[in-house]
């Protein structure tokens, strides 16, 4: 199992949208995907069709899972699509405070819990909150590939240095194999401004650490989100769908998984 973490301290840069669409795309390619929402806003869980009010009552969320020494990860999973399960999250400040207050290995709670999931899934895809607190650190600690979505805007790169520094700190301490890559989102190809941001992102990350595909700004992507679907499902021939499918294929290349022609339960080759 390889773990992808979508992280950016800014909100509204399409972390959740990209995490959800990548999950659907990889599951469609035949890979087994475990999505994890560690953002109390629960947007990823909502995209997956989870009832957030019910979840607030039962508290079967990813944060409680991190605190629970007795239960298995599988006690918290719910099916979303073929080959795609989710461990959801909703408002639960008390749980986050409890994780912060742990005196022993509080950064590694998620990593430890997920050891048992490794044989069951090819990908674990984690959507994080727009902050760099203890919960995000737990996600980064288990990350093989951290994807930083960047939406072109005047302030898109503000604070990027601090974000990358924090990610590098966690990598050095807890996840030495982690790769960090940028993904341009809500991108408008014909806008000179967006192109300038793209060039700047390439300068900062290095060309090989920026995904070739940029996710275009597209109404179809938003409309699909409104019905808790992926644009791949609602408008499979649209530019948005094409971009997310290309994104999934690039992920496979980076991770070193091979795409196979056969439709099996799993297409993992190494
Ligand atoms: N490529 C896109 N084109 C158009 N709208 C998008 C695109 N990606 C995301 N959005 C919209 O932008 C908003 C913020 O996206 P979201 O994924 O929730 O960001 P984050 O998780 O970083 O806060 C949502 O309303 C979403 O539907
Ligand atoms: Mg989000």
Describe the structure.
The structure is a single chain. The protein is of the alpha/beta class. The protein has one domain (2-269): 3-Layer(aba) Sandwich (Rossmann fold). The chain is built from twelve helices and seven strands. The chain has a seven-stranded mixed β-sheet. Helix 1 (15-28) crosses helix 12 (239-255). The longest helix is centred in the C-terminal third of the chain and has 17 residues, at 239-255. The protein is globular and about 55 Å long. The mean pLDDT is 95. The structure holds adenosine-5'-diphosphate (ADP) and magnesium ion. Magnesium ion binds at residues 15-16, 39, 43.
Q: What is the residue-averaged pLDDT? A: 95
SSE string = EHEHHHEEHHEHEHEHHHH
Question: Can you tell me the CATH class?
Answer: Alpha Beta
Query: What is the fold-level CATH name, i.e. the topology?
Result: Rossmann fold
Compounds present? adenosine-5'-diphosphate, magnesium ion
Task: State the distance separating the first and last CA atoms.
Answer: 10 Å
Q: How many domain units?
A: 1
Helix content: 40-55%
As a percent range, the share of strand residues is 5-15%
Blueprint of the fold:
Blueprint (H helix, E strand, L loop, with lengths): L1 E5 L8 H14 L4 E5 L5 H5 L4 H7 L3 H6 L10 E4 L2 E4 L5 H9 L7 H6 L8 E5 L6 H8 L3 E6 L9 H15 L4 E6 L7 H14 L13 H8 L4 H4 L4 H17 L15
Parallel strand pairs: 1-5, 1-6, 2-4, 2-5, 6-7
Antiparallel strand pairs: 3-4
Helix pairs in contact: 1-12
The structure holds adenosine-5'-diphosphate and magnesium ion.
Adenosine-5'-diphosphate binds next to α1 and α10.
């Amino acid at each position: 199992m390889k773990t992808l973490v979508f992280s950016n301290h800014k909100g509204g840069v399409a972390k959740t949208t990209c995490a959800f669409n990548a999950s659907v795309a990889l599951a469609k390619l035949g890979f087994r995907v475990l999505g994890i929402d560690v953002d109390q806003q629960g947007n990823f869980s909502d995209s997956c069709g989870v009832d957030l009010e019910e979840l607030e009552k039962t508290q079967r969320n990813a944060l409680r899972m991190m605190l629970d020494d007795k239960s298995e990860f599988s006690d918290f999973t719910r099916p979303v699509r073929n080959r795609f399960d989710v461990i959801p999250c909703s408002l639960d400040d008390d749980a986050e405070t409890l994780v912060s207050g742990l005196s022993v290995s509080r950064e590694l709670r998620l990593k430890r819990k997920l050891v048992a999931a490794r044989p069951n899934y090819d990908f674990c895809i984690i959507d994080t909150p727009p902050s760099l607190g203890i919960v995000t650190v737990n996600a980064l600690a288990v990350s093989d590939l951290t994807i930083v979505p960047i939406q072109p805007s005047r302030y898109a790169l503000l604070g990027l240095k601090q974000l990358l520094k924090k990610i590098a700190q966690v990598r050095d301490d807890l996840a030495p194999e982690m790769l960090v890559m940028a993904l341009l989102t809500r991108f408008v190809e014909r806008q000179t401004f967006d192109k300038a941001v793209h060039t700047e992102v390439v300068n900062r990350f290095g060309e090989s650490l920026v995904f070739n595909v940029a996710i275009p700004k597209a109404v179809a992507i938003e409309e699909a989100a409104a019905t808790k679907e992926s644009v791949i499902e609602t408008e499979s021939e649209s530019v948005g769908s094409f971009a997310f499918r290309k994104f999934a294929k690039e992920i496979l290349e980076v991770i070193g998984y091979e795409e196979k022609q056969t439709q099996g339960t799993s297409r993992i080759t190494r």
